Amino acid sequence: MIQTEIENFKRYLLIDHNRSQNTIESYARDLVKFNDFLEEKNITSMKDVDKTTIQLFLAHLKLVNYSVSSTNRMLSSLKQFFNFLVIEKVIEHSPMTLIQGAKKQKSLPKAITLQEIDALLAAPDTETTWGIRDRAILELMYATGLRVSELTHLKMRDCHLSLGFIQTIGKGNKERIIPMGEEAAFWIDKYLQEVRYSFEVKGRVEESLFITERGKQFTRQGIWKTIKKYVQIAGMDSDSVSPHVLRHSFATHLLENGVDLRFVQELLGHTDISTTQIYTHISKVRMQEVYRKSFPRA
Fold first, then answer.
1. Distance of CA 273 to the CA centre of its chain
2. pTM score, two decimals?
3. The domain 114-294 is classified under which CATH number: 1.10.10.60, 1.10.3090.10, 1.10.10.10, 1.10.443.10?
4. Which is the catalytic residue, given 135, 147, 248, 253?
């Protein structure tokens, strides 16, 4: 019964709210964990779930060392799910009404320096086919601040080299147009003209801009592994750089060079400017570090 309600909820998110497949699967994973907990407690109907059940579940998450951010994400999934059940008249009231999220200490997103960016971009061996492709991937990620899911879903038709921009569909199914620099355009053009055809598989048409040696679209994990490989080659800490760190670095470096916050918001595809505003804190922290290192009486 509960599994059926989860499947109905997934359809509701897709059809009524146009949520992305990644978001829907994230909700579903959370609900499966909740369902497992209910089965352990012999609860077979959502009508039997109350505030006490939720509090016991939260205590269980703490016991299994769930982080504050993961717990809050779980609570968000449950709130959405129980609101759906109220709408569908499966239950009369949501047990989540009086449940509050755990307070999270605000952490600044990580960004790497321009020198580290240069070392990372120079890491691929551009005498090889995959090295040219990987250099193009790294250049584009840093030049545009794309989310890794946006990069993997980028099609060849989305890349307008002569005009110097790409178009992508981001969170909330919103399209945005992002300019890219000459360096990124150069490496993408080189990849398309000299390399991509060698990865294509006869009889298969793959529209994705970046493809693997097997001629398939990259997965998010594939991009993550590619970046980790070059982080190590560049002599950097492999835990310090991820696809999202490149996105953070893109935003931070723009703001450090005086780009307007609203423009950075548009480039990143943030709905709320307060999400973008966190990068101004990084710039201030950097400023203080430079001041302390450079000023003799700091």
1. 17
2. 0.64
3. 1.10.443.10
4. 147
